Amino acid sequence: MSVSTEARMRLAILGGRPHFPRPLHVGAPNIGDRERLLQRIGTILDTRRLSNFGPNVRLFEDMVAARAQVKHCVAMCNGTVALEIGARALGLAGEVIVPAFTFVATAHALAWQGIRPVFCDIDPVTHLIDPQKAEALITPRTTGILAVHLWGRPAPVDALQEIADRHGIRLMFDAAHAFGCSHGQRMVGGFGDLEVFSFHATKFLNSAEGGAIVTNDDELARRARLMSNFGFTGLDRVEALGVNGKMNELSAAVGLNSFESMEEWLAVNRRNMDAWREALAPLRGISLQATDGRNRHNHQYVVCEVEAEQAGLDRDQLVEALRAENLLARRYFHPGCHRMEPYRSHPPAGGWDLPCTERVGRRVMVLPTGTAVSTRDIALAGELMGRILDEAPAVAAAANASPSRAEAKP
Predict the structure, then answer these.
(1) Where in the chain is the domain with CATH 3.40.640.10?
(2) How far apart are CA 168 and CA 293, in angstroms?
(3) Exposed, middle or buried: residue 23 (CB in 10 Å: 0-12, 13-18, 19+)?
(4) Which ranges in the chain are annotated with CATH 3.90.1150.10?
(5) For residue 327, what is the enclosing H or E element?
(6) Looking at domain 34-258, which of 3.30.460.10, 1.20.1580.10, 3.40.190.10, 3.40.640.10 is its CATH number?
(7) Other C-beta atoms within 10 Å of 261: how many?
(8) 24: number of Cβ within 10 Å
(9) Whole-prediction pTM value?
(10) Residue 30 in contact with residue 258, Cβ under 8 Å?
(11) What is the H or E stretch that residue 185 is in?
(12) CATH number for the domain running over 261-408
């Protein structure tokens, strides 16, 4: 074997060259029809209507509401601001129960409003908030539950609603992962008092940056729209406290473009999910999270768990080896919100008791998908992962010695 051939065969973490010439990202943006997008942007520039609830935003809101099967959609500049305005529109204060296994913006949106996030443990299989554990955290200071539809899988909405009704508290959902998903025959968007979508560039449906509050409550929708525009009810009339949370026309144009390609992207995600299932099936210690066939799913995230004893190396070591190959797998949502600041420095008495969150947080790995990833890429990734497992002791040692591994530790 020649030196060059041997170098190509060698794993990158062991001194070879990366097998992928370009990085494969988790959440690389889907773009859609460029010409149609440029046409929309050209019309916006011609009319000089760039913001303040223009026609593209209004149309985007109508399309989101129709897809989510709700009465109201209030488009926002991003999902985090939508969470903040949603919490304020609901009058949340004191303490709100939230899973620790989520993107930190879910907790930050509460803390930014002066609300204390009370972190709840999750179901070890679904990774969703555990309703029984959530109810056990309710105190006289609790005003609501902020649950998360993680990976596009709907949270236990019925159990949570029953708990919220019985205790007289509000219920909202972070639906950032779940646009186009359902709980049985009901689309995500109409559960609880309100739900919040993200249309960030990495999401299934994206507007480059954006988010929305969706609800069937007329008064909540009115308050949310008022708060998103400084409290204005007319040209010079301010009736409430508000901020600038509006979506602009350019973002809405990207969102409308996304709608036109959404079914195509969904087909790509399904194809890639099938390819990943085939690629991972022979590998020891790596299990792909199953999707519930009773629900609609956008297949935005390819989520697997790494069992270190079976694989011969842990999740972090495997991620390090894959990233050396330019396959940029991610640790979601490591290390958990409760281990991030400012929450890490202000635990309750006795600390946070979240054993399932801790365990899942050490095991979960998310793999690239979307229109930037081909089935050929996935097949090669499966081969590389098999070789990594075959050389697990050497890979683990190299990963432990990597400077980036040391920097990545919480």
Answers:
(1) 34-258
(2) 33
(3) middle
(4) 261-408
(5) strand 327-328
(6) 3.40.640.10
(7) 17
(8) 23
(9) 0.94
(10) yes
(11) none
(12) 3.90.1150.10
CA 350 to chain centre: 30
Mapped onto helix, strand or coil, the DSSP state of residue 223 is helix
**Which residue is it, tokens 């991972």?**
280
Per-residue pLDDT of the chain (410 residues; tens, 9 = 90+): 333 344 457 999 999 999 999 999 999 999 999 999 999 999 999 999 999 999 999 999 999 999 999 999 999 999 999 999 999 999 999 999 999 999 999 999 999 999 999 999 999 999 999 999 999 999 999 999 999 999 999 999 999 999 999 999 999 999 999 999 999 999 999 999 999 999 999 999 999 999 999 999 999 999 999 999 999 998 899 999 999 999 999 999 999 999 999 999 999 999 999 999 999 999 999 999 988 888 999 999 999 999 999 999 999 999 999 999 999 999 999 999 999 999 999 999 889 999 999 999 999 999 999 999 999 999 999 999 999 999 999 999 999 998 766 555 55
CB 195 within 8 A of CB 48: no
Three-state DSSP at 97 gives: strand
Contact (Cβ atoms closer than 8 angstroms) between residue 153 and residue 128: yes
